[in-house]
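Incident review: delayed structure delivery

Summary: a single-chain prediction request sat in the queue longer than the usual turnaround. Root cause was a stuck worker, restarted by the on-call engineer. No data loss occurred. The affected request and its eventual output are reproduced below so the record is complete for anyone auditing the incident later.

Affected input:
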Amino acid sequence: MNKTIIIIPSRMSASRLKGKPLLEINNLPIICHVVKKAKETGIGKVIVATEDKEIVAAVEKNDGKAVITGSHNTGTDRIFEAFQKLKTTDIEYVVNLQGDEPMIDPKDIINLNNIMIKNNLDIGTLASKINEKSALNNENIVKVITEEKLENNNFAKALNFSRKNLSKQNSNIYHHIGIYAYKVSILEKFINFKQTKNEVENRLEQLRALDNNIEVTVLLSKSSPIGIDTKEDYIAIKKIMEYKS
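Output delivered after worker restart:
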């Protein structure tokens, strides 16, 4: 039996781009592109966790599965409610795949899952190299600072995550990718902590883990997918994906 389940948190009321999950690329809603990528991994069941019936309808129309949740402050709190509702047994890892990453490479998700299981890690995530210096001062791009340099198939401890301008720093800074893999016991521990001041001020839920001394491991991804945070991101990714098709 698969040890992993992929749960994708999604909501219509994203602060920077409302209605984002149902914006279409190649006549398919963004959330359904993400579900498709998750299914391609073959590592376990794929479920969308949402408070919005419109998202459920779109996902089910395109052969996906969804669970209705209550309103939550973060995606991780949302996926945990969905995980509880599913009453799935024998799951050891929950992958929280952000619903705005339609260009993520399934191979990177598979690799993260394999590394998590092989090394019995608590929380794992992905990051890619930053090739343009402008990314360092772009507050829409989340950066992660690691203890050691990331190389292929090695992993390093996350020291901090930030949206701020990091152009004056130059050591081990990477572009964070919107995916987390949690050991189930650690996910339960995480959601029982209150949101920290650091988390709320920076709008980064992963800081709740670091603030409570839970180690977050970072793995280098082979690809550098762009998440959709703004209208400009959507237009850019739409052009790329429609050109490739």
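Verification: The chain has a mean pLDDT of 92.
Action items: add queue-age alerting; document worker restart procedure.
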